[in-house]
Automatic annotation (TrEMBL):
<comment type="similarity">
    <text>Belongs to the LysR transcriptional regulatory family.</text>
</comment>
<feature type="domain" description="LysR substrate-binding">
    <location>
        <begin position="26"/>
        <end position="228"/>
    </location>
</feature>
<protein>
    <submittedName>
        <fullName>Transcriptional regulator, LysR family</fullName>
    </submittedName>
</protein>
<dbReference type="GO" id="GO:0043565">
    <property type="term" value="F:sequence-specific DNA binding"/>
</dbReference>
<dbReference type="GO" id="GO:0006351">
    <property type="term" value="P:DNA-templated transcription"/>
</dbReference>
<dbReference type="InterPro" id="IPR058163">
    <property type="entry name" value="LysR-type_TF_proteobact-type"/>
</dbReference>
<dbReference type="Pfam" id="PF03466">
    <property type="entry name" value="LysR_substrate"/>
</dbReference>
<dbReference type="InterPro" id="IPR005119">
    <property type="entry name" value="LysR_subst-bd"/>
</dbReference>
<dbReference type="GO" id="GO:0003700">
    <property type="term" value="F:DNA-binding transcription factor activity"/>
</dbReference>
Amino acid sequence: MFYQHCVRILADVEHAEEAILTFTSELSGNLRLSAPMAFSSRYLTQILSSFALRYPSLRLDIEYDDRYVNLQDENFDAAIRIGELPDSSLVARSIAGNRHLICASPGYIATYGAPQTPEELAEHHALLYVHREPHGMWALPVGNLTESFRVRSRMRTNNGFQLLEGAKAGMGLAILPTFLAVDAIVAGELQIVLTSHEPRGGNISLVYRQSQRTSPKLEALSNFLIEQIGSPPIWEQQLTAYLETVS
């Protein structure tokens, strides 16, 4: 406990020193970041490599994990978080939207049909992401409300890529973020269903402690992420372009 306390004090001193620098100064020191697996494997690894090349005096320490780490206790400077954020004292800067889609393979739809209403989900197999759907319920917008619908779990997993591969294999319906599903949709391996009831996905955000509000390193990182991902995000541009060709 004493050691961790000392580490946090030294980190706070470093952050205070950073705040004295101007944003045109060369960034240096350490930047410890936590990020989720699926988004990182698909996009973030490339972006962070480019970020490191832009700031060669900055040392990156990156851990990929879908759990919500405790930034202070585990000595992280920041974390990439996806979805609706719980209330906390952390500062959150939105990097991009996180649209979710309900998808199924053409083979699954040929065998079981596509649900036309949320109520029909009870008749379908579903693949569940345990960090979002721990109780086997899907929360979907119905008009101005959000209602919960029970689904028949065929598989539960904490891995987004397993969810994607299960859906492509025809195991059942899955709620997938656009950034993960878009390539399979464009390739014809997945189809979107229940388009009028897209689950709310929140945002992709960079979160950090209040004491780091003025950190030039985090300001540079968030700006770089926004610059590289684009607005709308590159995966939404890809999906829009594809849907225009098939409409």
